[in-house]
Structures are given as C-alpha cells and as structure tokens.
Amino acid sequence: MKKVILVVMAVAAISFSSCGNKTQQAEETVDSVAIIDSLASEAAEASISALSEQIEAQDANKLQEVLVSVKEKVAEFIKSNPQVAQEYVIKVQNFLKENADKVKAIVGDNAAVAAAVSAITDIEPANVVNGLLEQVGDAAENAKDAAVDAAEDAKEAAENAKDAAVDAAKDKANEAIDNAANKTKEAIGL
Length: 190
Prior knowledge:
93% helix; single chain; 6 helices; mainly alpha
C-alpha cells in the first residue's frame, strides 16, 4: 500500500513539475513578444519624432537624412532581430502613410526624397525585411566567394612558386652536373 501511495505521489509531482515548465515557457514567449514590441516601439517613436520635426520644419533635405537613418536602423535591427525590424517598419510606415499629404507637400519635385519615402512606404514590411536579409545574405555569399577565390589564387600562386623553385633547382643541379662533367673531361684530357 505504501508503495502505491509513493508511486502516486511521484506521478503527481512529475505532472505538477511538467505543468510548471509549460507555464514558464508560455511566460517566456509572452516576454519575448513584449520585448520585441518594446524595442520596435522605442525606436519607432524616436524616428517618428525626428520625422515629425522635419515635417514641421518643412525641410526636405533633413527629411531625407532621417529617412536614410530609418533604413540604417532597419538594417541594424535585421542583424540583431528581424522581428523587431518588421515591427519597426510597420510603425514608421503607418506614420508616413498618415502624414502622406504633408510629406508630399514638402517633397515636391525632389526625386531623391520622394524615392526615399517610397522605398519605405511602398513595400510590405515582411518584404522589406526579407529583401534586406537577402541583401545581407548576398553580401555574405559574395564575401565567401571572394574568400574562396582569394584562397584559390593563393594556392595557385604557391603552386607556381613551388614549380618555379623546382625548375630553378633542376636548372642549378643540371648546371652543376654539367660543370662537374666538364671539369672531369678537362681532368681526363678530353
């Protein structure tokens, strides 16, 4: 009877501990979502504030600089956390879309600023993140290819140097043999 009670208590303890882990995992998931939203919100608020200042000042050049910094911030977030980048893009896009008339009034005929605005507003956030991830991946692939090419070039140069050294050694050995043969011939009188 005692054994049965101990087994039941052990099973109950295991089931309680497994339920605790599920609760902890759910809390960690909620925490990570909250952190992503918090990071994106803080960065978006700073960028939106800078954009608002330039819209109020009606300075197209400064607006373009802020838009460039927004792109840089997206790239920075992509390196650290693509989900934050996507949330950040959504928040900035919503602001730009809400203030599209004001932005268009400031941009006017300035093609560079118009291009910067459309680069951020016309693309879906997931596509922006995926596109930048592809660019980062392409850059990494290009760097890898360049490294492989450089390694192959170095290997080829080393083989060429080795072959040249072997050829030079053969030439010197043949020259030494010829000199020795000539001296031997002279000594013999031939």
